[in-house]
Amino acid sequence: MELDLYQIDSFTDTIFKGNPACVVPLNEWLSDEVLLNIAKENAVAETAFFIKKKIIFIYVVSHQK
Question: Among the options 2, 28, 33, 46, which is catalytic?
Fold first, then answer.
């Protein structure tokens, strides 16, 4: 499986500052298990997934305990 993944720095206008997060656009929804594994693999506190439609729903996965 190949997915685009964008790592962003939120709450800042300076690169490598702020809070890192990943954003992953999807063509179709994946299982919760796959979404959680993608989030864990990228080792940032939050990962957001979305499918581009007229109404945008963003699902954020936090894998930290």
Answer: 46
